[in-house]
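Worked Example 4.2. Consider the chain below.
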Amino acid sequence: MRNVPEMTWKAKAQVDPAELKALQAQLDLDPKILTLLLQRGIKSLDQARQFFKPSLEELHDPFLMKDMDRAVDRVNRALKANEKIMIYGDYDVDGTTSVAMLANFMQGHYANFITYIPDRYREGYGVSKAGIDRAHAENASLIIALDCGIKALDKVEYAQSLGIDFIICDHHTPGPELPAAAAVLDPKRKDCSYPYKGLSGCGVGFKLAQALSLNWQIDSSECWKLLDLLALSIGADIVPMTGENRVLAYYGLEKINSDPSEGIQALLRTANQLDRRLSIGDVVFTLAPRINAAGRLAHAQQAVDLLRGTDLSLLPEIAAEIEIRNQDRKNLDRQITKEALRQIEEKLSPNAVSTVVFQEDWHKGVIGIVASRLIESHYRPTVVLTLSGDKLAGSARSVEGFDLYDALEACEDSLIQFGGHAAAAGMTLKPEQLDEFKMAFEESVKARITEEQKQARLIYDLDIDASDIDAKFYRLIQRFAPFGPENLAPLLRCRNLIDRGSRTVGDEAQHLKISVVDPDSGLCLEGIGFNLGPKLELLQSQQPVALLFHLELNVFRGQASLQLRVLDIKAESELED
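Applying the procedure from the previous section yields the following structure tokens:
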């Protein structure tokens, strides 16, 4: 059974009582719901209406984005001259949905295009020379790069030498110099005044489609048909669930649930999820891993073919293959995680502040997932390495608040190359550099990490009583959806509960089926706690405990009931307040 890192619990800042009273005068809702609204910066009836019922009218004019006019002009020139266009995207969910989305939009208006996804293993992330060479061989003279390209200065220059232009649609942070492309669309450009900076890569591609539809005087409904794919990218790429993203995800989920594309239907059918209403969480944990599995274990073009759905007769076969890939990915993930945990227990000092593990036969496509899994049980910055050709390839994940990129920068003498950001990164190194890198990374983390960053934290929204938990309260909380970064599902705390027969479930008894009672009201609460098996002893001690949880609906054999998705359990005696 895995370790469960001890979590620090911290309450969100108290809301201003005067603001609560003012909002209560406008909205006749439970003060706890009003508190959740105030915590999200919603202080008036009008803001609440906009929050609870997003409108497509709130979307910004795409031409507010720097270079959008140049991008539209370059596409129009391509159409007029019947140039072949390559629609190019990365191999993850954001990249594959971007390519499928723009290709589906273009299909009805201009068919002289091809799609291209780089091979994860032969070409790596982003714009590749092989992709440009393929465009040249296919006589394509314009590449529209989606979810990548903002730092591809040398690749864009190489393409120009072959007579190929680029339009870049990216959402990553630019470097000090921009590529010399025909147009560079990126709301994070310093000289871009576009009002919303948090778009996914597919979101930037959608704004291009929106601009083209305006320029071509096409009915806006053609763009709204694309929103199911866009919702996939927003959920999977963990971008902020605010502003335009929240509007787009809201309507994208509506489309997924009411009128999903043929490709998404096929994916849902093989996952046995076709007859239930999906949330953004289902997108993240059910659809996204399957789409990603194609690029992790085979080639992500398979995911594009599925999402485009141009040949309906092939969709069941493609979806079935992707389902097999996803099962293979799960098995590899489980096996490699076990082997990595064994290495940590046997070889790493318990006083280490970082984790670096290596095995030459680990599958490169899942080491990033494994790094995240290891942090669940050993909460520290983590690097997982495997052999790739004659070099070691690694994937790194960080803990909350710790700048992983900065720590790796201090180790660059022990690496061939690295890239990424504060939370996640990748790197390559020579086999003979491994021991040197392990020491350098440990020293770098030790010099930078704070005591607070060493401790896993859960920040909860508010305290509730067992008597607050009913269908009405659940329905009101669901109106805060879709959930995501900067609009997380409310995390609630309930105190002074006593066990009434909780038990472990799952392989190696790692999960908890929780059953507790509130002694004051006599109300019983049921829940599930994933990877909380080691907490059973605490519950069975019969001392009063507090739970931190999300409230969710559990549907079993057609019967729906409220349950707690428990994230942590503490004895009342451990609480500081």
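The chain has 20 helices and 19 strands. The longest helix spans residues 315-347. Compare this with Example 4.1 before moving on.
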